[in-house]
Amino acid sequence: MKKFGVILVRHGETKYNKAKLLQGQGVDEPLSQFGFQQAEAAGKFLSNIHFTHVFSSDLQRAKQTASAIVLNNNCGSKPDIICDARLRERKYGIVEGKPLNDLRAMAKAAGQKCPFFTPPGAETLSEVQARAEDFFNYLCQLLAQSTEEENGEPDHHADYSGDVFVSLKNPSCANFSSSELNDDSSGTRVIANVLIVSHGGFIRQWVRHFIEDLKCLLPQSFDESKAFSVCPNTAMSSFIITFNQVASFSPWIMCDSLYNCSHLDDLSL
Questions:
Q1: CB atoms inside a 10 Å sphere around CB 159
Q2: What's the pLDDT score for residue 168?
Q3: Residue in 218, 208, 262 with CA at minimum distance from that of residue 240
Q4: What separation in angstroms does the CA of 185 have from each of 14, 179, 229, 254, 264?
Q5: H helix or E strand, kind and range, residue 33
Q6: What are phi and psi of 48, to 5 degrees?
């Protein structure tokens, strides 16, 4: 058995976020001044986690957030940021650059609820989720393959005893640290700590895939009804993924924290 940690972060605020304007993929807006402060705070909060891999959406608000987190990291050499278009925000078609209320009005006129409504030229939620699933499968295969290449052969004999449940003893704990992830008394091999920086719409579908399809365990004190709400700017979600062989891939996922914003407590608008 092998396991790896994922910390999923939404980008910092932009002027469009603040004005409640839809950016999607067509509006490539940089971070606002406050957005840079949020990204800096996120970086300091995560500074003691040794990230082996860093992935970001190729839109600049995500890339700038990922850069701030990496620059603030204190754990030796800094990994390269790998940009991947699969991590982009949902494409909103004709309403990109327009107020969120315009999308809500269109959805209401069509007799649908926002965000389930798909305006002309936009991606469906299913298409966004397919991107999330594709990237997650790619990530698992990448990590498994790189580990096997290092060791010469797959590790099929580790004695796993479920130690990842330890973090659920204090689900409100804000600090998702490398020491917690690497407390490996069970023999399960920790192969990577992965940072992913993306967008609100994408993150919601990622979380939906984890909870509905992969039966991800949420912290015991977390209100599950809030799991599919919009992720705030630079909010962090941490997951521990355990799997055996890619050939029979069926990951077991535990969520340590969801939409954590404690690093922003000292910031004010």
A1: 8
A2: 27
A3: 218
A4: 43, 12, 35, 17, 33
A5: helix 33-45
A6: -100, 10
Q: Which of 173, 260, 171 is nearest to 222 (CA)?
A: 171
Nearest Cα residue to 239 out of 171, 186, 189: 171
Please answer whether residues 240 and 219 qualify as being in contact, where contact means their C-beta atoms are separated by less than 8 angstroms.
no
Per the CB < 8 A criterion, the answer to whether 59 and 132 are in contact is no
pTM, entire model: 0.86
Tokens 């709400």 belong to: 229
Catalytic residue selected from 40, 89, 96, 123: 89
- Check if the beta carbon of residue 200 is closer than 8 Å to that of residue 9: no
Is 89 among the residues known to form the active site? yes
| Mean pLDDT estimate for the chain | 84
Q: Give 76's contacts (C-beta < 8 A, 6+ positions apart).
A: 50
Angle at 34 between CA 85 and CA 99, to 5 degrees: 65
Token pair, residue 226, equals 């809030």
Q: pLDDT per residue over 144-174, tens digit each?
A: 887 655 554 433 322 222 222 223 233 233 3
pLDDT reading at 207 higher than 60: yes
| Number of helices and strands in the chain (H, E) | 7, 6
Catalytic pick among 11, 53, 209, 263: 11
Return the structure tokens found at 134: 């594709």
**Residue among 219, 208, 168, 202 at smallest CA distance from 90:** 202
C-alpha span between 198 and 10 (Å, rounded): 5
Q: How far apart, in Å, are the Cα atoms of 246 and each of 4, 115, 147, 243?
A: 14, 34, 12, 8
